[in-house]
Amino acid sequence: MKPRFLLLACAGITAAIAVAALAQAGGPTAKAEGVTFLGEPLTPEQIGLGRELYAANCASCHGSKLEGQPDWQRRLPNGRMPAPPHNETGHTWHHADRQLFTITQRGVSAVVPGYESDMPAFEGVLSDAEIAAVLAYIKSTWPERQREFQAKVSARDGGRS
Amino acid sequence: MKSSNEIRPTRRVFLTSVAAAGAISFLPRVGLASQNEATSKTLAFDGDNLLSAGRGLAVSGDDGRSWIELASPGRILALATHRDQPGLVVAGLAEGGVARSRDGGKTWQSGRGGLPAGEVGAIASAARNPDLLYAAIRGDGLWKSEDAGKNWSLAMDRPWLNEAERDPLTLVSVDLETGMGGIWIYAGTDVGLTRVPDCFCRWQEVLPGNAMDALVTGSASPPEAPLPLGEPVLSLASAPSAPERLFAALPSGIWASEDGGVVWRRMIEGTASVVAVHPGDEQHIAAVIGSTLNLSRDGGATWHARAAG
């Protein structure tokens, strides 16, 4: 965890301030309201933390505005796929929470056995709570349609397991 | 790309010339008789009507006993029809672009609609939405149209198998849930079978649904009997009335799966090149084996060869 964020979290800043901070920051607008991850609601502070963690750990590949790498639907010369956008133009919102968590923690091959990709595994780099925060931040940027779609996919995934 | 097609022989040109030379016996032969006999490059059921496209286009209302020639919108490499919309036929053209008919192939509208130049080698309509089309452009990638072919956009690059990008030779929308809010698209390539969820999240191998659980728990993997490794999958069909039932045409024969493509068995040996299944009856199958059109009404237990129309 970034020291600055530990401080903020310890200081117990109010939700209002966190939301204001979100709105000010460059990236896509986050709408923390109603965002859950694996069924748990997240506070605006947690989503603010997620935004910071995203910038530090994910933005280099997935883009500071969640826009993905250029030409992300085209394979790289090594046969692997570039990093897709995490906004509504990508396909992240087709994955259930549990799958997003597994991909982030253990890489894509954890959900597609044998699959080779440049997506790193964040196990040992980010804690479970931090991974949930990053993914909740990503979810908070989606328009209503994508949020509803992904909520249904997550609900069905939960029902199956 | 167009220019490279002129220099480098395409697979089809290669097949035709090799077959003409009679060099390799397992390759589909291009017959010299009537177009319905040996030249079927693709088949599709439009309701009870069987469409056959090769050198030209023809339709049969009696399981291939007699044929009516139709005006072809071009050289058709692939056909798609839809169970919910009888009369709708979509054709992928060798000269590029896609043609669409609403009257069972009698009249056609062609267009590019943003599709790049290049052979449309495979085409499919989404099992749950006849307006949603997928087209594989040779040497390029997989494109999709959400408005019945008026406008196209790139969906995904070509699949990567055995260390190289592979052209889909055949595409089929399979009405089985992916767990990603949609269903699967299966593709046959010159080195085997692959599939992509309709979110185009990623091309992947066909694995048993519970393979993940086995991976996590370390329990025994469920049984698998894949198609012969490395063999071309020339044609695929999914039975809309029983979506877990798939059919594949390979140089080694017609293969069938009852579980969405994990376990396969060979239904009939022979140099198969095309397979199609009736939209409402998964027992009703048409296949080109060797140079003959064959029909089965009992799920592949018995086959009847059809002579030229």
UniProtKB/TrEMBL annotation, chain A:
Signal peptide: 1-25
Lineage: superkingdom: Bacteria
Cofactor: heme c
PROSITE patterns tied to this protein: CYTC
Keyword Electron transport included in the entry's annotation: yes
All residue ranges annotated as the Cytochrome c domain in the record: 45-142
GO MF annotation terms: electron transfer activity; heme binding; iron ion binding
Entry annotated with the keyword Nucleotide-binding: no
Keywords in alphabetical order: Electron transport, Heme, Iron, Metal-binding, Respiratory chain, Signal, Transport
The protein's name in its UniProt record: Cytochrome c
Species per Swiss-Prot/TrEMBL record: Stappia albiluteola
